[in-house]
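Worked example 2:
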Amino acid sequence: MHNLMNDKDMSFMLYQVFDSEDLIEAEFYRDHDKTTFDEVLKTSAKIAETYFLPHNAKADANEPQFDGEKVTTIDEVKVAWQHFCNSGLLSARHAYNDGGMQLPAIIHSACNAYFLSANPSTSAYPFLTAAAANVIHAFGSEEQKKTYLPNMLSGRFSGTMALTEPDVGSSLGDLSTKAIPQDDGSYRIKGQKMYISGGDQDITENIVHLVLARIEGAPKGVKGISLFIVPKFITNQDGSLSERNDVSLAGLLHKMGYRGTTSTVLSFGEKDSCHGYLIGEANKGLGYMFKMMNEARIGVGLGAAMIGYRGYLESLEYAKNRPQGRAPDDKDPNSKPLNIIEHADVKRLLLAQKSYVEGALALCLLGSRLVDEQEALGNKDSGILLDLLTPIIKSFPSKYGPMANDLAIQVLGGSGYIREYPVEQCYRDNRLNPIHEGTEGIQSLDLLGRKLWMEDGKGLQILMSRIQNTLDSAAKKQPLKALSDELQKQLAIFNETTTFLGKTLPREPKKALANSTLYLDMMGKIVVSWLWLEMAGKAITVYANSDDADDSAFLAGKIQAAKYFIGWELPKIQQQAQLLTRLDSTCLDMNEAWF
């Protein structure tokens, strides 16, 4: 086991918890088997360890520079990019005809997990590019696909998503970037975008920006937003580059973490000559971009889980090898100090981390599994469930991943607070994840204000059915009976709260949504408790009769982490339920002047 991922844990989740092997029954994945899956996972781990991990700290200490004309990144980022692209991972989800591997989403996410653990900032460049290419593949014209996709999927071009504006933030309906129609069918783009990750760099020949803008005369609000391809260099149909487009870098932003990824302010059309090309139909851009955003939200959750996982493994290794202190009942000053992993409170810190990060990883892999069930197996219910869970898949890891990193620092004590150890960078890197691709507050409004009630609440019905199946199975396994009973009890509280809010929302939306973040966290705890019960049950099935000491330890660890999360974290939803059902208005009633 290296400090990127517990390979046994990943294999267990892929093949036991989420039964990835059965995906080869789908026509699109029929050429694969467990051997090919394992090989691509092994390749990913090797590239991540060899070309991404070694410069993680260096990229953090030597962030990209802008001299007024060009951006420079350290050479190791370019080398890592090239190895990633040469491996075929950039196009791994695409069809063979498009140069891809036809890899299932869950296996692809598992591959990405190694890179996100090793070096999240360098990983951002290929992951953003893949997501942008997916949007063009799904909604672009045939000419746009032929011009851009081969170059993006080979790594010659990179991609970005340009949504946010300096005065708008997450309120995309208020964006002011304009698109002016031209006689040749193209548009002239004029405006400014901010916080654009990868918006400029010296890694690729060209950068393909996906830009949200409003065509002159279009309706105000989200219904008047269109999506455009805006390349850094004008690109000919054969992929060759023409003149520089009127896209300029106004400056680089200097971040707390994730420093190896450029964060940019971009100006479009300062010389009134920024060429943009409409994707799909006018005024439907936000819907198109949501494909990238929803994919990115699962990716953000995975990144948060894996940075948390990396910190957990680093602190676990430290605790196993750091002697300090003695047992409370050992009064002999001549006795040998214990390694700190023997102290109860350090065990608490480590067990909390384990429950957060392994639960968060399972949640993200569930999301990817649902993508496969919807796309490759044609399961409509899986798509409905995915829509419901996406806010949780983004927000739970983004909340508890940084919490795990905070606990990792505590395990290391003073060593955790200095840059000579990696856990302080993990915390700084992970602190971005609760912010981008929709804050916790935005995700909670999406969940409670919209997602829960879509298709008459069918997504929640599907979720409850799946949870009940796990509860029924766990109740038959003696080690899990008490945990099953506890989750059943808390599930009743959650359902009562949901019913109450559903009745209140039409009458008093302001009060019903005022504490929506509590509901998001409550539902996250329910879902992750379900996954922990599922993991513990599968571990019993697979390892209960094994004579191997590693198998026995793995099983015991899963049961103990399930006990921790369901016994320590899940009961916290009771206070959240009380606040929600009494429509507590403490925060809502706070007056600006009182601060």
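The chain has 18 helices and twelve strands. The mean pLDDT is 96.
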